[in-house]
């Protein structure tokens, strides 16, 4: 692990190095403290570390840290020779400070919730998030300290600011997406049985308790939450993220697929009565700010279909 940390701190790491670091940091608090300490010393001696190899620099940093800690231990031993009353006072103060340092700070949560409109969010690290309708994005005040972690319910497009030292992590229901700096889309509606991750640029790692899959650009991963199965396929990334520009874009999609998508977007129920129409393949782009009635009218002009609305349900025939 030392070699990986050395490459990361010196800016010579690969995407695989960062993913391994992310796994190591998530194992326990001790690992996170050690990395934070090493990074602090590295930043303080950055001009010195550039003159030697990264592995040797890390070793010297460790020696420097151990030397400083030995000095602190000597100071604590010297304090034991002071009068008893002073020792008792010092013990109480040090213990209280120690407990204050070790007790976790209270977390503050920040949440963005969308209803019928999208939201454009700029995070503290420069990452841009476009949150789709009926979605929720949550993060805490610890964002960016070591990891950049957010929680998503619904759908969002991420344009992640590159940072070789801090992984960006999107937590969804039962899984997570880990990246360094890239553009990708995640759809994880709580009502859906699947989680979809689509990569446009860079590299991402999709992870569950039992699986880990690396995605390449223009790949979409579909994770079934019920069966824990994972499938990947090549897709048109522009089509997947067209929603962020208020465009509904469909390329060679069945009418059933389009109606299901429109049902989700407009929160309405659409039933295709004529089953022969379900498999008809069509393509088209539509403005998302149009009403569902207007969209169905436009689609009906290109197909031999009619629609009616009854008791808030749309029927295609």
TrEMBL record:
Keywords associated with the record: Membrane, Transmembrane, Transmembrane helix
InterPro entries: FecR, FecR_C, Ferrdict_sens_TM
Keyword Transcription part of the UniProt annotation: no
Membrane-traversing stretches: 77-99
Any single Pfam family the record assigns to this protein: FecR_C
Protein FecR C-terminal domain: residues covered: 248-314
Residues covered by the FecR protein domain: 111-204
One Gene Ontology molecular-function label: sigma factor antagonist activity
PANTHER family: PERIPLASMIC SIGNAL SENSOR AND SIGMA FACTOR ACTIVATOR FECR-RELATED (PTHR30273), PROTEIN FECR (PTHR30273:SF2)
Name recorded for this polypeptide: FecR family protein
Native species: Parabacteroides chartae
Lineage: Bacteria, Pseudomonadati, Bacteroidota, Bacteroidia, Bacteroidales
